[in-house]
Amino acid sequence: MTQLHLVQSEPETFTPDPITDQEAAAMFRAAVNLFRLWGVTEGEAATLLDMPVRTFARWKADGPQRLGRDGKARLSNLMGVHKALRIIFREPQRGYEWVRKPNALFGGKSALDVMLGGELTDLMRVRRALDAERGLW
User: Were 40 and a residue from 23, 35, 94, 110 both cysteine, which residue would form a disulfide, CB within 3.0 to 4.6 Å?
Assistant: First the structure.
């Protein structure tokens, strides 16, 4: 007769690799293009990235400097919003316009209004709502 042995094991947890400075720089350049497509002002872009307007303008012209965890997380969430919109809308322009339109998901505010709350959690809220819309929950 075969004996069964209880094996104690911890469930594996997913720990993503940290975003590198090179990846963050690429996301920053992509975000600058995305902001243009969304019709975001430099002041709004600075709010989304939680940095002074002068810093955003300088980075936009000269390239980004080193970003901390919060900045990288903000960029990651913005890229997630963009990706979700590209999946949801067949025509990219509709996704770019959606960002500024009032939306019942956000109590009549636009996604941009929510994200301009300035907190990382505001970006995350929009990303989670879009992920839920596209069926990831």
Answer: 35
